Structure formats: structure tokens, C-alpha cells
Amino acid sequence: MLNPYTEPLHPGLWKMLTVAMCVALVGCLQAQELRGHVSIVLLGATGDLAKKYLWQGLFQLYLDEVGKDHSFSFHGAALTAPEQGWKLMAKALESLSCPSDMAPSHCAELKDQFLRLSQYRQLKTAEDYRTLSKDIEAQVKQEDLREAGRIFYFSVPPFAYVDIARNINSSCRPGPGAWLRVVFEKPFGHDHLSAQQLATELGSFFQEEEMYRVDHYLGKQAVAQILPFRDQNRKALDGLWNRHHVERVEIIMKETVDAEGRISFYEEYGVIRDVLQNHLTEILMLVAMELPLNVSSSAAVLQHKLEAFRGLRGLNKGSAVVGQYQAYSAQARRELQKPEGFHSLTPTFAGVLVHVDSLRWEGVPFTLMSGKALDERVGYVRVLFKNQAFCIQHERHWAPEQSPCLPRQIIFHIGHGELSHPAILVSRNLFRPSLPAHSWAEVQERPGLRVLGRPLSDFYAYSPLRERDAYSILLSHIFHGRKESFITTENLLASWDFWTPLLDSLAHEVPRLYPGGADTGCLLDLELNGGHLSFSQQQPEQLVPGPGSAPKPSDFQVLRARYRESPLISAWPEELISRLASDIEASALQAVQHFGKFHLALSGGSSPIALFQQLAMGHYSFPWAHTHLWLVDERCVPLSDPDSNFQGLQAHLLQHIRLPYYNIHPMPVHLHQRLCAEEDQGAQTYAGEISALVANSSFDLVLLGMGTDGHTASLFPQSPTGLDGEQLVVLTQSPFRPHQRMSLSLPLINRAKKVAVLVMGRTKRDITMLVSRVGQEPRKWPISGVLPSSGQLVWYMDYEAFLG
Ligand code: BG6
Questions:
Q1: Based on the number of CB atoms within 10 Å of its own CB, is 290 exposed (0-12), middle (13-18) or buried (19 or more)?
Q2: Percentage with pLDDT > 90 across the chain
Q3: Record's superkingdom (predicted)?
């Protein structure tokens, strides 16, 4: 073995080494001149996307890169036979254009070169792919080039992905030292499961770093500038980009076109899958994510984005509203040959309220909205800042530069609208932004122009010097291997993870019909209310058979009656909950007035959620500072588990009110890193805490529910513990998962000054009937053992539970 550092060299060897180094150096110099040949294969070369954007994007790539480090060949491919295919492709190539500042003769020359480098080929069989690869190799060899890499752009429907991927993987990979990049267009699945399946299949052919999933919104200039803007204006934004200063964020994409002509796609996807799950979510992430120190590091950007997904609060039905333009169902019947009676439930409009549970964004509403057949075409992101100003001076004297009276906002104007081009606008009363001077410039004043209701002169407004199509930007990023502008598998699955539960819950929702265009008026206007989003106008008459307009609570009086010899209050759910909340508040005020404290024990499960929300949002005189909250029962899971009753309480009540920490008394189900072990004496500990803090262990109010089997708290029929005896708190077994529970015992419940039993929903009808007739038989129906010894029992039942 030869080691140049340890052995003296023979003079002949020196000579040989010197020659070898010189050869290598010349090679290096040559390689520097030309870093290699790149073959770009556009699959679906005669399709719509290719015609509209991709060929132009490839031509732009050529214009940007020609004469630099690489040589190129462009292979348009499709299933069509060569002659016909070439004709179609040539049509797309005819309309290629150069930037307006390029001399026509130079443009013609480059276009000619590009055409000579482009060819069409039919790619149908495995053999066709092998031939393609051989042809590329032959060309590289013949022209004495080094192969740098191959790009395969899949502009084909997703059902074709797997076959093509298999062929590329088996016969079109370039040799060692050259890269492979495969580019996919959405849709990437229909929900989490299908996206996962597709990702797994593609993952069996390609490495993660080889795959580029396109979201063309990430190539829109104003969107692509969000992170660089945040980075370049760190100093000004550091203190502002958070919940203390941001009032709300709107991410909007309004379209005037409808879905006609592509209903077979649209019917399966709808607006949430088509636009919100991808374009608007990606933008949301760019606004909400923590800014990496180095925004030009793809890995750091992708990592931070993924972390931002983790902060998204789960969506539920109340987070979204959906609509459908009126002509949609007729179009669907026509295009899909559906029978006359067919009515689609596919939403063509959606507004969704998103919360990001991070220290930065907690409490800030992010509204995502998109729709077809609306009154204008415009896309923008608006970050609206809080404004504490109270202005005395008349508006005509306000100076946009300093006046705190004007709205303070940053708008990333994606395109169209009054402004009609991409722009970034910053209210003059915020700060003068810094943007890259070589590519962005201040917008000329256009008198009379207003942006989102404010004159353009209110803003520092910047636009790109040269407007570029999203695809040309993304093709350039693919070519340069800049992965931060694309959707990684983890990113894709995180997004579907977030959207799939909402999509499932909306599957049977009847969308609000809207006429479309200007006739829609304010029918789709939205309102943010607490954690919910709703239409601000009442539901008009539906034109498709929907659930019909249910009677409103105000149509009925609250019914007072007796049930099992105790007072019963019955009403429609909304009215019932507000009545119960008011009664609890009245008890609380009374207790605090007399004893300085209010001890409230609450049940878990789904029925009380609406009550918790009502208490949190509608009862501002509630003496929370003097209230102690106890749990009636708990599931033996960690307190952070979504199944934990304490979690429900935390999510729907505790996080919205100001209760001193030491007044919160979760059940100790998780001790010594195990759940509800007898030896850990959790039940005894809780009983001890109650005895120590609650006078006579007599709660001021205990809220119970009633199960369809007659259980209450976590006391189930035939329970060996908790139905009688001395124990105040017991461990029990539930027939439902999770089986192990901790519960207050009946004797303890019956010591309360007041017990309220909340029963809601049609499923409770049978047990309500049954329990109305039985005596006191807690072993069969634990609820029948609820009979406060000196306190009061009140039943709260909605009409469905009570009357069926
Ligand atoms: C596409 C959607 O991804 O984006 C279309 O499938 C939508 O439904 C389009 O019209 C909007 O993109 P752009 O670039 O026209 O705003």
C-alpha cells in the first residue's frame, strides 16, 4: 500500500502523479465550464397543464440557465402515437414567449434553440421507457457530455402514477453521480389513508429526496416571499408577529369561475380538498411557523413547517361552514349523467376557522376561505394587527405614516383583485419594510385604487419587478434542488391528518346554496364567535332537500314538570343549556355570598361540553376566583389523554376562565406512573382532599349525567363499589372503554346541596321512560339511587330525551 504521507516517493512516481494531477485539473476546469447534461421528461406533454404553464415554465428555465453550467434536452411524452403527439406538442410550443424586456431577435434565436432541443416520444410500454433511457445515454455519450441528472414531471392523473413510477425506477434511473428528480401534481390522495397508501407506493420506487410534490401556490411570488419577508424584516416583526399584537389572520382565495367542465374531479374532491387542504394550509404554515435562523436552509424550513403542523388545534364541525353555488347540482347531473333527483352535497365554498396552539398564536383566529362562482377573483393573506388607539382628531387630519388610528395590517396580495398583480403591502403606520431591491420595487400610486377597503396610499406597497408564473419559479427550484418549496411526505400526511376528521364530519352536511356572482350578496359572510365560525345571516330556505328548518328554541317555552318526584326542566338543547348554566351561576353566587366559596363537581363525557362552553363564553359574572372545581368521575388514562374527562374540562372550560390553579382538583388516577392501582390509594387521596376542603364533604353542586344503561357518574349497574357504604370515592369498572374508572360514590353525591342531572338526545329516550317508573334500585339503575339526603335534585332534559 502506498501512503504519500508516510513513505518517501520514488522520482518516477512523482512524475506520474504530477501528470495525473494535471489531467485531473483540466478535467475539473472542464467540469466547471459544464456541470453536465440535464434531461427533462414532461409526462402528459400534450395535456392542459403542460399547454398552459409547463412548456412555458421549461422555456423560462432554459432562458434562465442557457449559457451557464448545463446543457439540456426536453422530452415531451404522452400515450399518444408519435405523429399526432408531436403535432399537439408543437402547438403548445408555438405560443412560447420571452420576457417583455428581451429583444425579439434574441428571443427568436433562443426559442429556435429550445425547439431544437425538444422532442416528442410516445411512452406507453416498459420498452418505451428503456428506449428513452438508452437514447439519453447515447446522446450524452455522442456529444461527449457528463450526465448531471434527469427530471420526470408527472403531469398525468394520479391513477397513472404508480405504473410510470415503476417504469422509471426500473429502467430510467441515471448512472452513478447523476441525480433523479420526479415531480408530482396534486391530488395526493383524498384523505389521510389514501394519501398514505399513495405515498407508500411511490416511496417503494423513489427516495424522499428524489420526490418533488408541487403545490403551485408555493411558487406564487407573494407566497414565496412570505418567509424571506419575515426574515428580512425580523427586527420590525419580532415584537409584532404574535398573539399579543395580531388580531386575526385571513387566508383567502376567491374565484369567479365555477367547476363546470371538471365536475367529475370536483364531485370527488370539493373545495376543502381542492384548495384548503393544500394551497391555503401551506400559506397558513408559512405565516404561523417559527422562523428558522437560516431561511435558505431547506431542511430547517421543512422541519419548522412540520413542527407548526403539530400546533394545529383539531377541527370540528363548528370550525367550518360550507356552501354550494346553485347551478352546481344541475351541472353535476349533466356531466355525470345523474338522474333528475340527484343533489350533490359537495361544497364549492368553505370557510374554516383554525387555531394554532402555540405560545405565539394561542387565541389568534386564522380564517381560511375559498369558493367558486364568487363575486371576484382575488387571493391574499391579511395579517391584521390589534389597534388600541382611541382617536379624537378628525379623520381628515390623520397622517398615514404615523396615525395609530388607521388599521394596521400586512397583506401578501397573491394576485388579481383591484390591484391585479402580486404585491406586499404594509400599513404605513407599522414600518417601512425591506424587500430584495433587485426583484421587488415600490408600486406606483394609482389614484382611486383601494385594497381591502383602504386607499393604496395607506401602505408601503411593493411588487415584483418582473411578474413570473408560479410554475416557472417552481421548475427553477426543482432544477436547483430547492426542496423547501415542495411538499414532503411527512408534510402531506400531517396536512391530511389535520383535515380528514373535518372532512368526515362534513360528509353529510347540506351546504348552504348561493346564487353565485354578485347575486350572492352577503349570504356567505362569516362571523367568528368564540371558537366557532358561522354564517352571519340566518339560514335561508334551502332549495335542496336538507334537514329542513328545525323549530327554534324560542318557538317553545321552557317546560317545568316533575320527574321522579323532583323538579324537571325541559327545553330545546340550546335553551336547556343556557338555563342550566344560569342556575349554576345563581348557585355559585349564592354560595360565595354566604360561605366565600363554591364547590362544584362536574361530570365528563359529551353532554356537558355545550354547558362548559356556555359557562366559559356567556357568564362573565361567574365567581370563578372563589370556585373549586372537582371531578365527578374520571377515566383511568393520563390526564393529558384526549379521553380524560379532565381534558374535556380543560379544553372547553378551564382554558377560557380564570380559576386559581389551587382551586382545580383533578382526580389522581395517574400515580407512580401507573393508572388506578388500588395500592396507590388514589381514591382515598381524593376523598381526603374533599374532606379537608369541602365542609361536611357536601358539594354545593354536583352535575351528573345519565347513561342509556342507567349509569351515572362512573357507577354502573351491579357495581360492587360506590352504590352504598362509607367510601366517598371509589374505583369502578365500566362496560365501555376505558374500563377502569374513578368515581364519587352515591353516598357522597347524596350529601350535596344540589344535584343537577343533565340528559340530552333521542338515544336517552328509552332509559328516561324506564327510570321514570322504577323505584330506588341503584344496583339495577345507579341513577335511581341519586336522592340527596337534605339537598335538592333537579332534572334537566331536552325535548328529545324527555318527549322523544
Ligand atoms: C387549483 C385548483 O389547484 O388551483 C383549482 O384545483 C383552482 O380549482 C386553482 O381554480 C387556482 O389556481 P390559480 O393559480 O388560478 O389561482
A1: middle
A2: 85
A3: Eukaryota
CA of 591 to the centre of ligand 1 (A): 59
For residue 469 and ligand 1, the question of a CB distance below 6 A is answered with no
pLDDT score for 691 = 98
| Residue linked to cell 404553464 | 53
Answer yes or no: is the C-beta of 215 below 6 A from any ligand 1 atom: no
pLDDT tens per residue, range 112-157? 999 999 999 999 999 999 999 999 999 999 999 999 999 999 999 9
C-alpha 529/C-alpha 187 separation (Å) is: 33
Q: State in Å: Cα 223 to ligand 1 middle.
A: 14
Distance 274 CA to ligand 1 centre (A): 8
Cα(264)–Cα(50) distance, rounded to whole angstroms?
A: 20
For the CA of 416, the closest atom of ligand 1 is: 16
Q: C-alpha grid cell for residue 738? A: 376505558
Closest ligand 1 atom to Cα of 377: 16
Chain centroid, CA 384 distance in Å: 20
User: Which atom of ligand 1 is nearest the CA belonging to 253?
Assistant: 16
Round to whole Å and give the CA distance between 383 and 428. Answer: 14
458 in contact with ligand 1, CB cutoff 6 A = no
Task: Please identify which residue in the block is written with the cell numbers 389522581.
Answer: 668
With a cut of 90, say whether residue 403 has pLDDT above it. no
**Secondary structure of 649-673 in the HEC alphabet?**
HHHHCHHHCCCCHHHEECCCCEECC
Phi, psi of 599 (to 5 degrees): -105, 115
Predicted pLDDT at 510: 94
Average pLDDT, the chain: 91
Residue type, 170: S
CA nearest to 182, candidates 169, 194, 195, 171? 169
- For residue range 515-537, list pLDDT tens digits in order: 999 999 999 999 998 778 999 98
Q: Which residues of 780-803 are buried (b: 16+ CB within 10 A; e: fewer)?
A: ebbbbbbbbeebebbbbbbbbbbe
Q: Is the dihedral of CA 218, 222, 224, 229 positive or negative?
A: negative
Q: What are phi and psi of 587, to 5 degrees?
A: -60, -40
How many C-alpha atoms does 737 have within 13 Å on its Cβ side?
1
β pairing state of 246-254 and 320-325 = unpaired
Question: If you count them, how many residues does the chain have?
Answer: 804
Cell numbers linked to 482: 430547492
Confidence check: pLDDT of 665 > 50: yes
Per residue in 236-259, is it b (16+ CB within 10 Å) or e — as a string?
ebeebbeeeebeebbbbbbbbebb
- Max CA pair span of the chain: 114
Query: Does 279 participate in catalysis according to the annotation?
Result: yes
For residue 674, the tally of other CB atoms under 10 A from its CB is 12
Q: What is the pLDDT of residue 484?
A: 96
Ligand 1 midpoint to CA 482 (Å): 23
pLDDT one-digit tens code per residue, 694-710: 999 999 999 999 999 99
Cis peptide before 187 (omega within 30 of 0): yes
* Amino acid letter, 90: A
Say which DSSP state 794 is in: E
10 Å CB burial of residue 214 (0-12, 13-18, 19+) is buried
Among 37, 75, 279, 670, the one annotated catalytic? 279
Residue with the smallest CA separation from ligand 1 atom 6 is 274
Pairing of strands 179-185, 211-214: parallel
